[in-house]
Amino acid sequence: MNNVSELKSRYNQIYPAFGSYTECMSRALFTGLSSSILGFSTAFCIQHLLKNKLPYPISGNILVSSFVAVVVGFQVTSVRAQSCQAAWLAAEEKHTFFTENDSKSD
C-alpha cells in the first residue's frame, strides 16, 4: 500500500472523489509542516531580538519556540484537514453542506 496511484485506482470505483481527497490531505499535511517550521523560526527570531526583555534564560528559547511551532502546526493542519473532509463528503453526493449543518444543530 505504499504506491499512492495503486491505492487511488483501487478505491476509485467505490469512492470517485478519493483521488482529490488524498491530494487535498497531502497539501494539508505539508502546509501544516511548513507552518510549523515557519512558526518555530519566527518565534525564535522574535525571542532573539527581545532577549534582554524576556523573563527566562536564553536556553528556554528552544522550548518556547517548539511549543509555538506545535500549536501553529496543529491548528493549520486540523483546519485544512476538516476542509478536505467536508469537500470529500460533498463530492460523494451522500452529504451536503446543509445536512452537515443540520446534524451539528441537533
TrEMBL record:
It comes from the Eukaryota. InterPro entries: Tmem141 (IPR026788), Tmem141_sf (IPR038259). Pfam families: TMEM141. The chain crosses the membrane at residues 28-50, 56-76. Keywords: Membrane, Transmembrane, Transmembrane helix. This is Transmembrane protein 141. It comes from Daphnia sinensis.
